[in-house]
Every structure is written in structure tokens, then in C-alpha cells.
Amino acid sequence: MLENKTHRLRAVEPTDAEQLHRIENKSDEWWLGSNLAPFSQATLQHYSEGQHDLWRDLQLRMMIEVKQGNKRSIGAVDLYQLDPRNRRAGVGIVIEEEERRNGNGLSALGLLSDYAFGHLGLHQLWAEVPESNGESINLFLRAGFERKGTMQDWIWRGTDWQNACWMQKIGA
Q1: pLDDT tens-digit map of 18-58
Q2: Domain range holding 34?
Q3: Which of 2, 30, 97, 168 is the most exposed, having the fewest neighbouring CB atoms within 10 Å of its CB?
């Protein structure tokens, strides 16, 4: 369920702290998520060593690992704002820049969807994608999400407001 022929999703390990530090501290991408300030290496090391429980924390991060060749982590996927009553969660994904545009994101979203619907029993996944991020919109569409609407002035980019596309995938 958490792996296919080319990729696997796995828990965050202490060895991931350096990569998380690099991913989380790209200030030019903070507007895409909820970061307002950098994370210290110590904070991310502590996070990577912690106990993570989706039902307690209402969020879960998993690392995306390429299985072939030199096994390596190439990014992360998140379930966040879990709503246990309505069985839905938001989805986030980040892929290292040099690993983008070659199927890694599509594979990871497929694995995450299978896990969310098949194992967790969620009914729906959703994502807010900046309207200006056509590559991410296309990724979610290819992963079986549907564009359900546009939220006006939804994301503050620091100098201007960005519209967001509301993407949704309903499980079986």
C-alpha cells in the first residue's frame, strides 16, 4: 500500500532532518504553505526523532523514497487538517527541484491516495493549489483530483494576493 515498483512512502527518520531543513527553509516557497519563519536544524532534528500519530496530531508527513538504484528520499507528502468526523484531509507535496517533472510526484500522490482511502478509510482528499502553479494543478489532475472551484485572493504572496484552485478527490 505504501509502495509500488518505483517509489515508497515511509516515516520520517532522524536522518531526514538535513533534507527537511533544506526543504522547509526555502523562503521563496513559504507562500505555498504555512511557514512564516525558518526552522532551526535542532527543531527539525527533534521533529524527525518524535512520535507522530495522524489521529492525535491531525497531520502526518511521509518521505518519498525512490526504490531503484541508490535509494534516496526525494521529497515529502503530507496529510494535514485531518477531519476524522467527515473523513477528509488536505494533501501537500514537495519534491526536490532536481527530481521534478519525471513522475515522482504522480507516483507519490497515487501511493498517498491508496493509503488514505484503502487503509485510513478517508472519504476525500483536498488540496489548495495556487492558480499560478500550473504544473501542480496538472499534477493533481493527473493524480485523479478534480478542480472544484477557485478561491479568490486566498493566498498572500507577500506582495500580492493569489487565487487558489480547490482540488478534490473522492474515494470509493
Answers
A1: 777 677 765 555 455 655 556 667 666 666 677 777 888 88
A2: 7-170
A3: 97
